[in-house]
Specification:
By secondary structure, this protein is mainly alpha-helical. It has one domain. It is built from two helices and two strands; from the N terminus they run ααββ. The protein has a two-stranded antiparallel ribbon. β1 and β2 form a beta hairpin. The protein starts with 11 loop residues before the first helix and ends with a strand. The relative contact order is 0.06.
């Protein structure tokens, strides 16, 4: 009977990502840990409608900055470079 073992190598990126996740979890737990539950107010009246929505996404990538603007379905994509 043979036993196979899988060797998992940790690289610098994996250690940094794992450490960042642990730090984020500790920060989140310290902020939310003792907080009481929050109740929202009841919505009175009609639900507001949105006729226009603009979302800005900032990406640190040169390739996206020089890509042409375009349209996907009814969504307009404007790239500023």
């Amino acid at each position: 009977m043979t036993t196979r073992t899988k060797v998992v190598a940790l690289d610098r990126r994996g250690i940094l990502c794992g450490g960042g996740a642990v730090v984020f979890e500790v920060m989140l737990a310290s902020k939310v840990g003792g907080a009481p539950p929050v109740r929202t107010e009841e919505l009175r009246g009609p639900v507001p409608t949105v006729d226009h929505l603009a979302v800005r996404v900032v990406i640190d990538s040169y390739q996206i900055a020089v890509a042409p603007s375009g349209k996907s379905g009814n969504v307009e994509i404007r790239r500023l470079g």
